[in-house]
């Protein structure tokens, strides 16, 4: 078993066909809509979860306790071939479209031993109809900024019905106007004012806590700049952004979250590992106090 913080009461309930766990505290209720700890030797393929590989990629559950998170019985391992022209060589994800959620919290552990390189890593897909959708990407660099580093949040500001990577919040604070339509209303705190570098990976596991909230409104007259992004890595906050426009008013709620995914370029195979994934509403499952924010860059 992984080591969980269970200092608060847990109970279960059934909602929309999903088994949900709710963690209650005096201040808020956190509902776990999906989680995986990969302790079984079987790759999950039920309750909205799915994983696979193609084109020379491989996905498996490691049983090597020397390599796994906290010496556990299982961790998820994805192996990419030399990416070349690019492709989705490994994929994994959790589909919860039936819940019609627009605000989710995602936390997990990941590592990239040996070769450091870029993948989409974590992508949130909105429910789509043809070209009408809102996506957000928390990617690892494959463009040459710093291969394997996380340096930005990519999304669309809702200027059109197709929203993916048109707009960017850089961890460094560079090019603040790239925040898009909410420039002037958005409050973006970047306490580290630097990217999370490829060198930060080392050979160790790292803890990621990420929030995605789509802004509200279903017409041009009712849309509100209340979208949000939050990125915390190893107890350090890299992005805490509020008052954002990050969807078109006609875009639907979130469909799924995706791990691994696309990579391109690169001259060597590489690996990405994940473990202890939790997707929640109402806050993070890890209820340790949020690190104090000492903003070094505010975009208003």
Topology:
Blueprint: E1 9-15, E2 18-24, E3 29-36, E4 49-53, E5 58-62, E6 75-80, E7 84-87, E8 90-95, E9 103-111, E10 121-126, E11 133-138, E12 152-155, E13 162-163, E14 167-170, E15 187-189, E16 206-213, E17 227-233, E18 236-244, E19 254-260, E20 263-265, E21 270-281, E22 298-299
Helix content: under 10%
Q: Tell me the strand percentage band.
A: 35-45%
CATH topology: Jelly Rolls
Q: Could you list the spans in which at least 5 consecutive residues all have pLDDT below 50?
A: 1-27
The Rg value, from CA coordinates, equals: 18 Å
Q: List the total number of helices.
A: 0
CATH C-level label: Mainly Beta
Total DSSP E strands: 22
Element-by-element helix/strand order: EEEEEEEEEEEEEEEEEEEEEE
- Structurally, the number of domains stands at 1
- Indicate the structural class: mainly beta
CATH architecture descriptor name: Sandwich
- Average of per-residue pLDDT values: 89
Beginning-to-end CA distance, first to last residue: 44 Å
What kind of sheet is the major sheet?
Answer: 12 strands, antiparallel
Shape descriptor: globular
């Amino acid at each position: 078993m992984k080591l969980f913080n269970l200092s608060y009461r847990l109970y279960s309930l059934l909602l929309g066909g999903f088994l949900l766990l709710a963690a209650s505290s005096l201040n808020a209720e956190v509902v776990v809509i999906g989680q995986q700890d990969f302790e079984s030797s079987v790759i999950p393929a039920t309750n909205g979860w799915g994983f696979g590989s193609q084109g020379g990629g491989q996905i498996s559950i490691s049983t090597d306790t020397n390599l796994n998170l906290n010496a556990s019985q299982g961790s998820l391992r994805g192996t990419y071939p030399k990416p070349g022209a690019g492709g989705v060589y490994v994929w994994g994800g959790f589909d919860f479209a039936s819940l019609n959620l627009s605000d989710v919290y995602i936390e997990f552990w990941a590592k990239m031993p040996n070769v450091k390189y870029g993948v989409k890593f974590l992508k949130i897909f909105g429910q789509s109809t043809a070209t009408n959708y809102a996506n957000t990407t928390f990617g690892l660099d494959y463009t040459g900024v710093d291969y394997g580093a996380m340096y930005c949040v990519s999304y669309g500001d809702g200027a059109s019905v197709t929203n993916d990577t048109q707009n960017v919040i850089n961890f460094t604070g560079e090019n603040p106007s790239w925040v898009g339509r909410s420039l002037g209303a958005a409050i973006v705190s970047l306490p580290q004012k630097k990217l999370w570098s490829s060198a930060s990976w080392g050979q160790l596991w790292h803890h990621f806590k990420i929030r995605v909230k789509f802004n509200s409104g279903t017409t041009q007259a009712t849309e509100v700049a209340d979208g949000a992004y939050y990125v915390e890595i190893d107890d350090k906050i890299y992005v805490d952004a509020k008052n954002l426009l990050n969807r078109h008013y006609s875009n639907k709620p979130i469909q799924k979250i995706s791990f691994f995914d696309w990579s391109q370029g690169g001259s060597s195979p590489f690996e990405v590992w994940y473990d202890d994934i939790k997707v929640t509403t109402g806050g993070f499952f890890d209820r340790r106090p949020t690190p104090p924010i000492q903003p070094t860059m505010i975009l208003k």
